[in-house]
Amino acid sequence: VHCEPVREIAMPHLLCVCLCLLLTSGYSWVYEKTVGQVWPLPQNVTYYTSQVFIEPSNFHFRVTNNTCPILDEAVKRYTDVIKKMLPRNNHQWQGCPDGASLQEVLVTLTEPCEDWPNLHMDEHYEVHVNRPDYDNLTIVSSSSVWGLLRGLESFSQLVTPATDAAGCLVLNSTDILDYPRFKHRGLLLDTSRHYLPVPVILNILAAMEMNKMNVFHWHIVDDESFPYQSITYPSLSDKGAYDSKHLIYTQDNVKNIIEYARLRGIRVIPEFDSPGHTRAWGGGANKLLTACFTNGSFNGEFGPVDPSRSQNFKFVRTLLEEVKSVFPDKYIHVGGDEVQFGFQCWMSNPTVTQFMKDNNITSPENLEGYYMN
C-alpha cells in the first residue's frame, strides 16, 4: 500500500483555499477613488460642506509678495493643471451653478526664495479656501518657496470637475496646515540595468511632485552599463553604455533633469557605486578592476575595483569630483554595498593579498573599509 504524508496531501489544498479567500476577501479592500481630497494626507485638514466653483477661463493665481523663477514657473504650471481638468470631450458649456465663484487664488511667500532644494528646506504651507476667517479669500501661503510648491499641489488636488455643470470645476471650502513627517522622501531609479529615456525620467519627476516626494536618487551606473557621459573620462560611456550613441545621458541631459527637478523642489542625488557594482567601468578604465585568479592563474573574470593600485584611487576621486561639480546637491551616493560578492576575487589575486600583507590588512572586510575611507 502506498501512503503519502497527510501534510504533503493537504498543503496544496490549503494553499488553494487561502488563495480563494484572499481573492474573494480582497473585494472588501477595494475603496472608491477619493475626489477632491489631498494626498498625502495633510497633518491638519478640515473639509467644509460649502463649495466654490471655478470657471477655468476666468481663473488665475496672483503672487502677492516675494517671487522668483521657481514660483513663477509653478504658477504657470498649476494654472495649466487647473485649466486642463475639464474632460476633453466636453463640448457643451452650461455655466457654473449659482453660488460662490472662485476667480483668484492668492499665493503668498513671506520670505525670499532659495535657489536649490536641500535636506533642511522648509516645506510647511497653509491653504485656506473661501474661509470667512480670511474674508472669503482663497490663499496658499508659506515662508518657503518649497512649501508653496507643496501647497499649490494640494490646492490642485482639491479641485474636480463639477458633476452637474459641464464646463465648471468645484471644490469644497477647506483649511489645511501641512508639513512633511520626513525630510527625505525619495524614489530610487536604476538607469543602468534598464536605460530610460529623458522624457520618461521627466514624467517620473512630475509624478514625484504630485506625491510631494523631494529626493530623486539616481542610480545612474552599475555593473550592467555606464550611461553617464563623463567630461573627464568619456571612455567610460563609450565602452560601458549599452549604446554609446543613443543610450547615454549627456551633460545637457543631466542638466535638464536637474533643472526640471529643481523647479519642482526635488533634489537629485546621483549614485556612483564602488568598489563593487563597477563591471561596466572596466572597459573604459584600464586596470581599474581586480583580475580574478583560479589555481594561481587569471580566469578571465574581474571583480571589484583593485584597491592595491594607487592610480585607481586617483581615478575614482577625479570622477567623483566631476560628479560633485555637475550635481549641485550637497550629497552624492558612493555605494559601498555588496562588496562581499567580490571578496573571493580579491583574495585570489596575489597582488591584492600582498598589498594587504604589506599594509597589515587582515581581512577583505577591512580591505573594503580601507577603500571606502
UniProtKB/TrEMBL annotation:
Molecular function terms from GO: beta-N-acetylhexosaminidase activity
Any single GO BP term: carbohydrate metabolic process
Catalytic residues in the record: E338 (proton donor)
Domain called Beta-hexosaminidase eukaryotic type N-terminal: residue spans: 38-158
Ranges for domain Glycoside hydrolase family 20 catalytic: 182-373
EC numbers, comma separated: 3.2.1.52
Keyword annotations: Glycoprotein, Glycosidase, Hydrolase, Signal
Family annotation (InterPro entries): Beta_hexosaminidase_sua/sub (IPR025705), GH (IPR017853), Glyco_hydro_20_cat (IPR015883), Hex-like_dom2 (IPR029018), HEX_eukaryotic_N (IPR029019)
Family named by the database record: Belongs to the glycosyl hydrolase 20 family.
The name this protein goes by in its record: beta-N-acetylhexosaminidase
Originating organism: Homalodisca liturata
